[in-house]
Amino acid sequence: MTSPSQPSPLVRTAAGADAAPIAALLGRAFDDDPVWCWLLPDEASRVRRLAGLFEVLLRRVHLRHGATEATGRDGGTEAAALWDPPGHWRVPVRLQAAQAVPLLRILGTRVPITLRTLGEIERHHPREPHWYLSVLGTDPPAQGNGLGGALLRSRLDRCDAEGLPAYLESSKERNVPYYERFGFRVTRELALPGRGCPPVWLMWRDSGQGG
């Protein structure tokens, strides 16, 4: 959390020039994520692969919505939230096709299991209009400085003003209480296909829940 003597981190809308640094910090942030550890078991290449994957998703999916936000201490890029507006959480077929070659290059033989796992998560995505928090991550050295909270409040305040709910999937059980402090509640613990794959927690937030 930010102390009373510290100003709130400045949150800004990310642009194309931010894709590489955001992807790099997210790669490091998700290096210990249970689901991604299961999907990408090679520790030596995981951060590199994740960074490559996030850069593809940023450039081809999220940045075009104008809703990805970044923040950091002293104006740096140390945390990011990848939001999709209502009605835009599903990746169009043409974009899925365009990602096929980059994903094969990044994920290699893990493409089938990764797509199957992500597809199962998508199958349970709510259909009613909402803002979707696809990814939230803070570079490990910068964690504990209120950056993730600043990013959440930035979008959730606007959700409340517009009367719109929000949705996310948490792949870390220990993050569930954190999101609950911002008004999210668990709607389901979703078991995923594949022997030993960890679950994810589907979380929904009605507008006006504070936090």
From TrEMBL:
UniProt organism field: Actinomadura chokoriensis
N-acetyltransferase domain ranges (all copies): 45-208
InterPro entries assigned: Acyl_CoA_acyltransferase (IPR016181), GNAT_dom (IPR000182), Trichothecene_AcTrans (IPR052523)
Protein name: GNAT family N-acetyltransferase
Signal peptide start-end: none
CDD domains: NAT_SF (cd04301)
Superkingdom, taxonomy of origin: Bacteria
Coiled coil: none
